[in-house]
UniProtKB/TrEMBL annotation:
It comes from Acinetobacter larvae. One of its GO terms (molecular function) is oxidoreductase activity. This is Short-chain dehydrogenase. Residues 10-192 form the Ketoreductase domain. It comes from the Bacteria. CDD domains: SDR_c (cd05233). PANTHER family: DEHYDROGENASES, SHORT CHAIN, ESTRADIOL 17-BETA-DEHYDROGENASE 8-RELATED. Keywords: NAD, Oxidoreductase. Belongs to the short-chain dehydrogenases/reductases (SDR) family.
Amino acid sequence: MLSPEILSNKRILLTGAARGLGRDFAAAIAHAGAHVVMADILTNQVQHEAAQLAAQGLKVSAVSMDISQKQSIQQAVEVAVQRLGGLDGLVNCAALATGVGGVGMQQHDEALWDRVMTVNVKGTWLVSQACVPHLQASGQGKIVNIASDTALWGAPKLLAYVASKGALIAMTRAMASELGEYNICVNTVSPGLTLVEATQYVPQQRHDLYVNGRAIQRQQHPEDVNGTVLYLLSEMSSFVTGQNIPVNGGFVFN
């Protein structure tokens, strides 16, 4: 069992924190004892969510970040590091997931493809790049990239999203190989279809496909993923790097 203070005094930056999985991760990480800076392009919403957690006595604040813009990333990371006094972990949860599916590859819009790749792949790289010097200084840095199990089974009519999440898994392995010399662990978590805002428009048929195909046949909730993220941010996983961990109730195996 993970200790309730498994991340005591760890300094964590979390992107995509205004809603969905990111919002739930922020609460779980803060409850585990960490100091958390929640980053998101949805400035008002992420500030509201951070204030809600801070009102509970948790060590949480918010910063505005557009991960498609390098300058915005650099400014936000600088603010976060100043507040935290350094950086021990980064969770790359920000992604474009709403309105990215529904058509086959022959009808896929090129502009949407570029947008998904810019946010989901390039953005993750740029945030990581900005954080690495600070993670290196901590002596035992952690990066957790949030992908998707759609990249493992090739979900249809979701080409750009699936490709971007597959790229994250591959990029994680390359980052782990490069950053190991600095004692920075880089891993991926690939959730299954989870009940959050971004999936409310997914057809019921797809939800049923997941539930019926899982070894554990029920809907997936954000809290199902929290433990894996906490483990990968903690010192318990200090010899785990370059891995992809699906969290999907056994719908697909890695």
